[in-house]
Amino acid sequence: MKSLDFTTAHIQQPRAGAPAAVSARARIPWGFPEFFIISQTALPALLYLPGTQNFRLLIRFSAFAISLAAFAWWQAQPRRDRLHPAANWGFAVMALLTVMLFHPTTSSLQAGLAHLMVYFSVIVPMFWASLLVRTPEHLARILALLLVCSGINSIVGVLQVYDPAVWMPRELSRIVSEGPMGLGPVTYVGPGGRTIVRPPGLFDTPGAVAGPAMFAALLGTVFGLSAIPVWQRAISFTFAGAGVAAIYLSQVRVSLVIVVMMFAAYAAVLFLQRKPTKAVTLGMFAGSIIVLSFLLAFTLGGDSVSTRVMSLFADDPMAVYYRARGGQLDYTVRELMYEMPLGAGLARWGMAASYFGTPEQGSIWAEIQITGWLVDGGVLLVALYLGLLVVTLLTEFRIARMLPLPRLAACAGVIFAANLGVAIMIVSFTPFVTQIGIQFWFLAGALHGVASESGVVAD
């Protein structure tokens, strides 16, 4: 798939320029960015193997440690100009979190440092990625690799429901399986009364495939509509369909909603890029993939799949959200914000608290990112990180509107749509302490690097 020509179709210049574009890509050697994208799937996939649970912490942290190592390399580089327009917001977030390490109710120094390193490893790609990805063709290759990794992950997720005896990991996360209720909360009843575990994909946590599946759906559809060889278009659409089907089978409803939002955002960008026909075509294919993938998922998962999807329409959207995650947001705004306006210290929630936290301080339940920010840094951290996201998304949107640079604008449009979906997840999940957040900032940094190299200054 490395020859996927993302510079064509939606984004392309006349076909006469295609050989030059292919030649330009051929001159871009594979390096750390490609390795980094692959590692973000390959390292967690090690937990798919039997006997790896004893090394779970090491394997999980290794995917984050690579980002920190790249940041150390970036700091040693003489050329660190052209920082991302949101860089100062990022530095402010990192500085505040460092101060919060010394909060009197931080769980422990060890736990606080672990929590701090997770935050840093997620956010620092916005700095170092800009030095490593410098051309639209290179960025297109990165997006193609992301599609392949996410698509394979999604296909494995579908196969885990089709034939769990072969494809389901022999060991699931002990954090889940050894909990007080076991695997009960992450299973549902399929055809013939069969118990189905929500597919983890190339990971060990039930339902985890829903994350990469969102990107497989968006990128697979975009690449599938590009002017690339037919066999590559077929593979792209297969990845897209597997992505949506994996979301249905994982029963993570928010991922389905976000995929629709990603499609809508990208279609809106196409309209603004004066490509209404392509926007309509995208909508038609996206709708078809959503419907056909539902039929596949219903065949494999049965009535539980359709019931879960239909629950999105059982009431008005706000009522549905409130029953799912809205209660946590309401509790955060109405109570926690007044109880801890300056935060409660680091490692009071999340994986660092689970692995390194001390019972003396106690843990705080945070299942959405806004709650996590409030606990970690109070109202100030919420404001700073929201500002960081807004500036980043506006920067990507402005680049997507740069019509004289069609290849750059096209890449920016896709990245804007994907990253907007991740940003929306802050009210339903905790993306910015996970690898989804790492991907967000890597794409943001890479796009900025290409824009800077193209002579674009996005203030």
Short description:
The protein has helices spanning 18-26, 32-45, 56-75, 87-100, 109-123, 125-128, 136-162, 164-167, 174-177, 210-224, 230-250, 253-272, 276-301, 303-310, 317-339, 350-356, 369-400, 406-424, 435-453, and strands at 187-189, 195-197.
Note poorly predicted spans.
Answer: 1-23
- Domain unit count: 1
Number of helices: 19
- The ordered H/E elements are HHHHHHHHHEEHHHHHHHHHH
Distance between the termini: 35 Å
Q: What are the key terms here?
A:
459 residues; mainly alpha; 19 helices; 1% strand; disordered N terminus
What report would you give on this structure?
The protein has 459 residues and is an all-alpha fold. It has one domain. The protein contains 19 helices and 2 strands. It has helices spanning 18-26, 32-45, 56-75, 87-100, 109-123, 125-128, 136-162, 164-167, 174-177, 210-224, 230-250, 253-272, 276-301, 303-310, 317-339, 350-356, 369-400, 406-424, 435-453, and strands at residues 187-189, 195-197. It has a two-stranded antiparallel sheet. β1 (187-189) and β2 (195-197) form a beta hairpin. α7 packs across α10 (210-224), α10 (210-224) packs parallel to α12 (253-272) and α12 (253-272) runs antiparallel to α13. The two termini are 35 Å apart. Mean pLDDT is 88; it is low at 1-23.
Q: How do the strands and helices of this protein lay out in sequence?
A:
Blueprint: H1 18-26, H2 32-45, H3 56-75, H4 87-100, H5 109-123, H6 125-128, H7 136-162, H8 164-167, H9 174-177, E1 187-189, E2 195-197, H10 210-224, H11 230-250, H12 253-272, H13 276-301, H14 303-310, H15 317-339, H16 350-356, H17 369-400, H18 406-424, H19 435-453
Antiparallel strand pairs: 1-2
Helix pairs in contact: 2-3, 2-7, 3-5, 4-5, 4-17, 5-16, 7-10, 7-11, 10-11, 10-12, 10-13, 11-12, 11-13, 12-13, 12-18, 13-14, 15-17, 17-18, 17-19, 18-19
